[in-house]
Amino acid sequence: MIFAMNNRIYLAAIGLGLFAGGSAHAGFVTLSIGLGYLHDAEGTGIEHRLAPDALCILVADINRDGFGPVSEAGWATGGDVLVTVLGTGSQEGANQFSPGNDLEPGFFSRNLTIDLDQFGSFSEPIPIALRWFPTLRAGDVDLDATPPNAGLPYGEFFRQTPRYAEFGVEGWFLPASGGQSITLDPYATSEFMGTDDPEAGRATQRSVPEPSCALLLMAAALGITARRRRGSRIS
């Protein structure tokens, strides 16, 4: 399928394995994602598209209990793990890659090779999600050494309901066995004749939460109590 937009031509190979250009190794899955444009939290206009080097990561919900949010405890929480990726689109480390290029900032279309060995033994497909961080640059963040800060904005997209059943795409899952080539959401937004509107590229916009108010209140109360005790001893 060919899409024309902004005087540019895009070729979308819709179906399983058409992006991959070859068979995958038995311990790996070739994953092709064509989500369309990703945006910051402010809107879906051109001015809100992500910078070409904005940080994006894949997260796997290995316990199949829902994706834990980004928090000061880590980029993936609640038993989720960062996905190790190889191949086209991988930048400055195994977990991170960026959307678009200087000609088409924010346009997310990536071919990635996923190492299944990192998940150990499992028998069911693993749900995955794409997270992007509008204010961070892929080459500046060491995900293994630097935790996220409170207030950091991020977007998240995952699909667990059928939207492309005619192409065999029923959700964002990694299969339980390697040697497969899978295409997810080939240019999903309506800008590219997909089924989603541009809001899909802002899906589940959040920010890393501040420390719990209850914990802050508890800490404040303990601090006041300590000062009073010290004062009583002095008097």
Layout of helices and strands:
Layout: E1 2-5, E2 8-11, E3 28-37, E4 54-60, E5 81-82, E6 85-86, E7 96-97, E8 107-115, E9 126-137, E10 153-157, E11 173-174, E12 180-184, E13 206-207, H1 213-234
Parallel strand pairs: 3-12
Antiparallel strand pairs: 1-2, 3-8, 4-5, 4-7, 4-9, 6-8, 9-10, 9-11, 10-13
How many domains? 1
* H and E string: EEEEEEEEEEEEEH
Number of helices: 1
Q: List how many beta strands DSSP finds.
A: 13
Main β-sheet description: 7 strands, antiparallel
Distance separating the two termini = 83 Å
Give a description of the structure.
The chain is mainly beta and 235 residues long. It has one domain (2-234). Helix content is 9%, strand content 28%. The chain contains one helix and 13 strands. Strands 4, 5, 7, 9, 10, 11 and 13 form a seven-stranded antiparallel β-sheet that branches. A four-stranded mixed β-sheet has the order 6-8-3-12, with no helix packed on it. It has a two-stranded antiparallel ribbon with strand order 1-2. Strand 1 (2-5) and strand 2 (8-11) form a beta hairpin. It is globular. The termini are far apart. The model is unreliable at 1-24 and 224-235 (pLDDT under 50).
